From TrEMBL:
InterPro entries: NAD(P)-bd_dom, NAD(P)-bd_dom_sf, Polyketide_Oxido-like
Pfam families, per the entry: NAD_binding_10
Superkingdom of origin organism: Bacteria
Record's protein name: NAD(P)H-binding protein
Organism whose genome encodes this protein: Enterocloster alcoholdehydrogenati
Xref: SUPFAM superfamilies: NAD(P)-binding Rossmann-fold domains (SSF51735)
Annotated ranges, domain NAD(P)-binding: 8-193
Amino acid sequence: MKIAVVCANGKAGKRIVKEAVGRGLDVTAVVREENHSAAPKVIQKDLFDLTSHDLTGFDVVIDAFGAWTEETLPLHSTSLGHLCDVLSGTDTRLLVVGGAGSLYVNPEHTVQVADGPDFPDIFKPLAAAMAKALEELRKRRDVKWTYISPAGDFQAEGERTGQYILGGEELTLNDRGESVISYADYAIAMVDEAVDGGHIQQRISVVQK
């Protein structure tokens, strides 16, 4: 299986590359500058300069793009839109590192995590930008996409337990009532989806077991 990880130098990207390489998959890092991930192959190119030719032959493209500053938040939509355009009409699957703020907290799917009174104001612009990108992604019927939301507490330095619970559109809690997952365990879930998953044009979520 051939996998390309876009923005492989980021925290999530590096973890996903490491997990995929560790399983013996054929992994290519897509990076703007020098490759700092474990991927043995590299496409050194800005995400917005990627063409269909660049991504031809990959079974899965994993989008690990992230933007955090106010002026760059709209790039969540434009970057994802560009990748969709590049992969439109192909059999290459697009897996997206998503956010937790857009997960629903009621069965009617009318209230999201980011709507809650305890959701930090500082993260609301980011959650809104990522939710907008997801809503735009849902309209793409020409791309084999899967959007994977982490748990509410997404821990960059958390341990790799090797176990996770697969959820859907709603915020899922583990047996301890927690919504938490490490980047390492999230990477396991992402690569599992790449290898075995069939959640085409769906949003799924993961939480540490």
